[in-house]
Amino acid sequence: MPKKIKKTGLIFFPAFDWAISPNHPEREERLLYTQDQVFEEGLLDFPNIVEYKPDLATYADINRCHICVPNPQYLTTNSHLISAGGAITAAKKVLSGDVDNAFALVRPPGHHSMLVAHGARGFCNINIEAVMIEYIRHQFGVKRIAVVDTDCHHGDGTQDIYWNDPDVLCISIHQDGRTLYPGTGFTDDFGGPNALGATINIPLPPRTSDEGFLFVMDNVILPILDEFKPEIIINSAGQDNHYSDPITNMSFSAQGYALLNEKLAPDIAVLEGGYSIEKALPYVNVGIILAMAGLDFSQVREPDYDALRIRQSPEITRLIEDEARNVMTLWKKKKNLKKQITGSAAYIRREKNIYYDTDNIMEKQTETVRVCDKCGGVVMIDSAADTGKRIYAIILPNSCCAECRESGENFFSRMNSSQYNHVYFQDRQKDVFIVK
Amino acid sequence: MILGIDVGGTHTDAVLVRNFQLIRKAKVLTNPTNIMASLLEAAQKLISDENINNIDRIVLSTTISTNAIVQDKTNRVAMVLLSGPGLSPETLDLGKDVYFAGGYVNHRGIPVKNVNSRQINEISGEIAQNQIRHIGIVGKFSSRNPQQEIDAAELLRDDSRHISLGHTLSGQLNFPRRIATTYLNAAIQDIYQGFVQDVQKFIEKIGANIPVYILKADGGTILIDKSMECPVQTIHSGPAAGIMGVLATARMKEDAVALDIGGTTTDISVFADGVPLLEPSGVAINGRKTLIRGLYTKSIGVGGDSVVKVENGDLLIGPQREGSAAALGGPVPTPTDAMIVEGIVDFGDRQKARDAIAPLAKMLHMDVQDAAQAIVKKMAALISDHVRQILAGINNKPVYTIHELLEGKIIQPKILYVAGGPAAVAPFIAENLGYPYSIPDHSEVSNALGVALARTTAEVTILADTEKRELIISEDGRVQSIPRSFALADAVEVGKTTLREKAAGMGARPEEIIMEVTESQEFNMVRDFYTTGKNIRVKVQIKPGLISAGAERVNDA
Questions:
Q1: Angstroms from A278 CA to nearest CA on chain B
Q2: Is the distance from CB of B413 to CB of A27 less than 8 angstroms?
Q3: CA distances to B61, B62, B216, B234, B404 from B32, in Å
Q4: Residue in A27, A34, A36, A40 to test binding to B, most B beta-carbons within 10 Å
Q5: What is the mean pLDDT of residues A313-330?
Q6: Active site residue A154
Q7: How confident is the prediction for chain A on average, in pLDDT?
Q8: How far apart are CA A203 and CA B313, in angstroms?
Q9: Of the listed A112, A153, A174, A242, which one is catalytic?
Q10: Which residues of chain B are under the pLDDT cut of 70?
Q11: What ipTM goes with this model?
C-alpha cells in the first residue's frame, strides 16, 4: 500500500552511561537493543529520516511548568536536562518546518512528574513533555495542544500539570488503575472546573490487545481530537502495553503500535516507559519510526509474535466498547457539567496525597482554583512533604484573564511566607517565575 | 626504501622514499587501458639495477575498483538474502538477481529461524540456470552471528562460483549497507583479480621479489594477496591517497582542514589532532551506501575551471565545467581567469581572461578588475561556507552518552592546507575562515608520498555476551566461549590480540602496530530484576597514519 512519505526527525539519546541504579528497569541497557535494531535496519540512511543531537533544557524551561522543591537544580541531573532537551529539539525541528514530525527517543521518562515536584516518582523527575509544551507555547505561540499518552501507566503527571488548562487536551489510555501503578486515571477524572473535558481518561482491562487499542483510537481518541482541533498532537509514547512487558499485563504488539501511530499521526512523539527492552522495544521503536516516516511497516514483528496467543477475549472487547461509550457520553455533555460541579462557589478546592515511589516521599497537597469563565483560573497550591518541606505556589494560566491575574498577583504580594520554606509565583502567560 | 605509486585518472606519480626523505620523483600520463604500462613507465624512471635491491616495499593506490563501479564494468551477482522480518526489503533498491531465503538471527545473534537447505538448493539451481558465477550472501544481524551465512555458503559453494559473505566485510550493523558492500565486493571480483595479475606481472618485469601493498579507502595499506578477499576495501583508494598525501607533506598534530582544489571540484577533508577523520558508517559510491571504512571527504562543485555567470545580478560559480579557463582557450570565464586578471597567478593569455570576464563585469556594473576580484572572493566564500557547514555537521554528530554530549571532542581547525592548481585562492579562504593556511611542499607528488608512507590499518569489533557465555569477533565470524566472569578488560585484551594478528597478516610490521580502543562499553543485563550477565562491546583499531609515529616531514635529499 503506497503511503505518504514524511520527513521525520529522530532524536535518539539512549544515555548509555546513566541508570537510576544498576538493576533498575531505567538503566543503561534500556535502549541498547533498540539501537541495534534501528542501526541494523539502516533506518538512519533513509533520506526522509534525519537524526539530531538533543539540546539541553535549561532550568528556566523547567520553571515554566513545574514548581520544583526547592529548585530544579536539586531535582535534576544532566540526564534529565538532556531528555527534556531532546523533547524540545524534536518540537523545534517540527515547528520550524525542518521536518514534518519528530520522535524523541530519549530517556529517562517524565509523564509521572506532577506540577509540584518534591522528588522522583514512577522513574520520573521532571515532566519532559510539559517542559516541551511550555517551550512550544513560549517560543512559537502555539495555543491548542493535545497530548495522547499511550503508556500503559496513567499519565498522572501530565494530567496534573494541565488539570486546569482548557487549551491542553490530555488523553490517557492505560491499564485500569485498579490493577497497576499509579492507581489513578478513571473516566470521571475529567479536568478542573474551568477545563472540563480537557482531561480524558480511558482505562483498559488487562490483556487488551491490538483490536482494543485500535478500537479506542477510532471510536474515542480520533473523534475527540477532531472536535478539539489541536494545532499540535503529541504522543506520550510509552511502550509498556507490549505483551512481553515485565511490569504490566497488556497484549499490545509492535504492529499495533505502528498502526496506532499511523492513525494518530502525531506531530511529536516522546518516549515514555517500556521495559521489555529486548523483546519489545527494538521492534516497537522500528515500527513507530517507520509509521511516522510513512514507510512500509507491515513486516515488522517480534520473533515470538503469535497473533492467536495475544488475542483479546470477547469479554474484554465488550468491556472496552462500554468504556468507549461512557467516555463519549461524558465528552458530549462536558459543557453542561460546569454549573453542576461549581454551583455558586468562587473557588474549588481538591486535596491530594501524592506518593513518590522512586524517592519514597509522601506529599499532602491542597489545590485551589478560582472558578472562571474566561480562562483556566488562577491556581494556588499548599504542599507539605514528609521531607519536612512545605511550600506555597501561585500559578497564572497561559491565557490568564485580568481578574485572575489581579487576584494571583495580590495573593502573592500579601502572602506571608513565614510558615513556608518557599513561596513560588509562576506566570505561564508572561513567563515570569519568582521565589520568595 | 619504499616505492610509492599513485595511479590517478590523468597522471601516474611515483616517488622513492628513504627514511622519510624523498629521493626521487616521477610523473607520467596514465594509460587507462593499460595500467601495467603506466606503472612500469613511472617505476622505471626511479628504479635501477643499483637501487632495486634496497626497496623493501612497493605501495600502490588504484582507481581500478572505483572505475569498475562507476563505469559499470562489473560482474553479474546473485544476492542471497536472509532478511527475516523488519523493514520491508521492497523498500530497498536491490536490483534483479535477488533471492530471498528463510533464516534469521536476532540482535543478540540468537537464531530465530534456521536456514532451510531445500530452499537454498532450489536457489542454487536457479543461479546455475541463470549462469551467474558470483554470489553474495547476507543475513540480517550476521555480524552478531555469521553461522547462517556460512551454512548457506556451504550449500551454494562449487568450484565455478565465487562467494562473498556479508559478515567478513565489516563488523558494523546496517543490513542494507551490508547488502550493498557484499554486492560490490562480488561485482568487482573479476576486474580486481585482473588488476592483481597485472601488478604481479609488473613485479616480475622489474625483476624483484618485493612485497606489494595496496592503499585502501581508509588510507591504510594491505598486502595485495590479502586484498583479493575483499577488493571492495580498495574503492576510493585515490581520494585516500590525496588525504594521506596531506599528512605526508604537512607536519600536523592539530585539528586541520585540507582542500584539494581541482578544475571541476574541491575536495574537503578534516583532521582531528592530526588524524584524518573516517566516514561514520562507511563510504558511499555511485549512490550506494556501504560499510566500507573510508576517510571522510566531501566533494563540492567549485573548482578553477567552474563556469562563472551572472544571473539576476548575482554572481554564480559552478557546479558545471565546460572546458579549461578562457585564458587557456576555454569557452567561458572561470575563477582561474579571474585569478589571472587579478595577477594572483601568472600563466595563459591575460587578455583572453579579461575579455571573457568583461561581459560579466558589465552585468555587475563593475570594471573588469573589480569583477575579477569579486569572482575570486565569491569562490573563496563558497568554499568557506562549505567548510563551515561540514564542521558544523561533524561537531553536531549525534552521540549516545552523557559524557560525550557534554565533553565530546569539538573540532576547531588551527590551519588550512591547500593543494591543487588553483591553490592561489587560499589566502582568501583563510581570511574568511579566520585561521592561517599553508601550501605543503611537493604538492605535485604528495599523493604518491602519502601512498608510500601510509601504515597498515585495521579494525576489530568484539561483542561478548556473558549470559550466552559467548564472544564473537565480528569481522572474522569467529565465535568462542567465555566464562561468566569475563569482563570488559578481557574483551579489550581479546580485541588487541586479534587486531595484532590481523594487522600482521595484512603486512604490518610489529613496530607499526599502534592500537587504539575506540569503543568499550559494558552493560548489565537484567532480566526479571536479576542480573543475568553482561553485554560487552569493544572496538579496537589501528588508525590511519604514517608508518612511523614520529615521522619527520619529507624533505628533498
A1: 9
A2: no
A3: 14, 11, 20, 17, 47
A4: A40
A5: 97
A6: no
A7: 96
A8: 65
A9: A112
A10: 549-557
A11: 0.94
